[in-house]
């Protein structure tokens, strides 16, 4: 390709970006703000979507979101377990900076976080911007005052207050019902995934003629164990995938059942003529659960681990007729980045001191080669004999990643550019890099140490 042609192509691309971004900015001042639909699955493996070519799973509706917009190939959860990542999404902070270094559980003796009350979380900020806000599905950031969804800014809550469900059909945890409609305990029949889907459809329909835009946070419990797909979905997978392992078949069916629910939600947007004005975000809270035979792609380990397989998550974003179709971004991003991105798109001008960085520009001009030197920090505090209330941590800066995946073991250092699957530990070969990365990690731990989590 000639130099002149390269310059011409670059100028054309720049003009396309400027026009798209200008159109978006004008829309913020001249027309209504977009609705925002944030869908978060629970423990979905990085490659447990069919848009990556995974042969034994079919997720046409998640794929549709990707086809309508952008697939993010380097998107990280801020923790390898549920509550901490959800805290990052809601605050834009690293988990321990938000007061949630570990899983918040219904058993106070084994609960490792308390969401900060001195800050506004995402729905409260969106309320101030004129949004109706709703959470349907899993909360997992507190079961008592002052950290229930309605108290933290959601105008409407219809879902699950606690951590995991022991059964997707009877909706109990340790024999206790944590299903709520706002502050009222409710008893309902049906599979939890179907309930959350239908309640989301109902909410979208209720907003059709509302003058205000809506923010709907749809947080499925699926595919978190226990893996309980409806029988017809399991039968379909077993019939289609003749050689599939029975454990894997259940997980595939469970995810496909959830994907069908996502399709129903997208159809509700279409049927109510709201799809074109809705920003749709799909992501997972951490990597897939290895005992359930999740597919975390080629990456090491899975849920509960700060290796790549525990942190990389499938993520797609669309905004029909505003974001260009069928794009791919390699930019390194994390869950905490969703907070400032959503607020910027919603029109916020407020300066909030957070760890996340808005990637609104990336929605209009995705990066193909996006390696940068930004720092990303990951943490998990846990109890039991393995952790004893201590933490595991990881820090990534550019291509380098320093981690301690067990509080009883030594640090490990990897060059993710040459060793993306974390096979060659360079901790002894690169002492100067270890020292630099360790200094960065300690600074983040010190900041987190200032925040109460009990």
Structure commentary:
- This protein is α/β, with parallel strands linked by helices.
- The protein has two domains: about 35-365, 3-Layer(aba) Sandwich (Alkaline Phosphatase, subunit A); about 375-450, Arylsulfatase, C-terminal domain, CATH 3.30.1120.
- It contains twelve helices and 18 strands.
- The chain has helices spanning about 5-30, 60-70, 80-90, 120-130, 190-205, 230-240, 245-270, 310, 340-345, 360-365, 385, 430-450; strands spanning about 35-40, 70, 75, 130-140, 155-160, 170-175, 175, 180, 185, 215-220, 280-285, 315-320, 325-330, 335, 375-380, 390-395, 400-405, 410-415.
- It has a ten-stranded mixed beta sheet, sandwiched between helices. Strands 15-16-17-18 form a four-stranded antiparallel beta sheet, with helices on one face. Strands 3-14 form a two-stranded parallel sheet.
- Strand 6 (about 170-175) and strand 7 form a beta hairpin.
- Helix 6 packs across helix 7.
- It is globular, with a radius of gyration of 21 Å.
- The relative contact order is 0.18.
- The model is unreliable at about 1-30 (pLDDT under 50).
């Amino acid at each position: 390709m000639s130099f002149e042609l390269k310059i011409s192509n670059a100028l054309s691309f720049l003009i396309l970006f400027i026009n798209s971004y200008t159109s978006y900015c004008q829309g913020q001042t001249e027309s209504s703000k977009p609705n925002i639909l944030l869908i978060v699955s629970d423990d979905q493996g990085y490659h447990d979507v069919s848009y990556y070519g995974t042969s034994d799973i079919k997720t046409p509706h998640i794929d549709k979101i990707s086809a309508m917009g952008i697939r993010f190939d380097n998107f990280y959860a801020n923790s390898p377990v549920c509550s901490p990542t959800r805290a990052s999404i809601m605050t834009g902070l690293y988990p321990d900076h938000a007061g949630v270094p570990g899983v918040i559980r219904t058993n106070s003796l084994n609960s490792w976080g308390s969401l900060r009350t001195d800050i506004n979380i995402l729905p409260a900020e969106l309320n101030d911007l004129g949004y109706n806000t709703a959470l349907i599905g899993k909360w997992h950031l507190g079961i008592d005052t002052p950290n229930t969804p309605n108290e933290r800014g959601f105008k409407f809550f219809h879902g699950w207050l606690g951590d995991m469900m022991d059964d997707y059909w009877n909706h109990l945890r340790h024999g206790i019902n944590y299903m709520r409609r706002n502050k009222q305990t409710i008893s309902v029949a049906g599979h939890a995934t179907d309930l959350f889907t239908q309640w989301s459809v109902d909410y979208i329909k209720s907003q059709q003629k509302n003058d205000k835009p809506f923010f709907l946070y749809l947080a499925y419990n699926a595919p978190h164990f226990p893996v309980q797909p409806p029988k017809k979905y399991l039968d379909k997978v077993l019939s289609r995938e003749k050689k599939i392992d029975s454990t894997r078949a259940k997980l595939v069916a469970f995810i496909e059942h959830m994907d069908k629910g996502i399709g129903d939600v997208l159809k509700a947007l279409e049927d109510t003529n709201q799809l074109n004005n809705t920003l749709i975000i799909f992501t997972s809270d951490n990597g897939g659960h290895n005992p359930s035979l999740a597919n975390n792609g080629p990456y090491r380990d899975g849920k509960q681990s700060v290796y790549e397989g525990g942190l990389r998550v499938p993520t797609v974003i669309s905004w029909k007729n505003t974001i260009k179709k069928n794009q791919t971004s390699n930019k390194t991003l994390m869950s905490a980045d969703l907070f400032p991105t959503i607020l910027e798109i919603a029109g916020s001008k407020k300066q909030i001191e957070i760890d996340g960085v808005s990637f609104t520009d990336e929605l209009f001009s995705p990066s193909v080669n996006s390696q940068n030197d930004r720092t990303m920090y990951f943490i998990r505090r846990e109890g039991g004999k393995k952790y004893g209330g201590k933490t595991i941590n990881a820090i990534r800066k550019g291509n380098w990643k320093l981690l301690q995946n067990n509080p009883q073991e030594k640090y490990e250092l990897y060059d993710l550019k040459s060793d993306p699957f974390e096979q060659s530990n360079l901790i002894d070969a690169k002492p100067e890099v270890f020292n630099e990365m360790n200094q960065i990690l300690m600074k983040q731990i010190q900041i987190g140490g200032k925040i109460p989590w009990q």
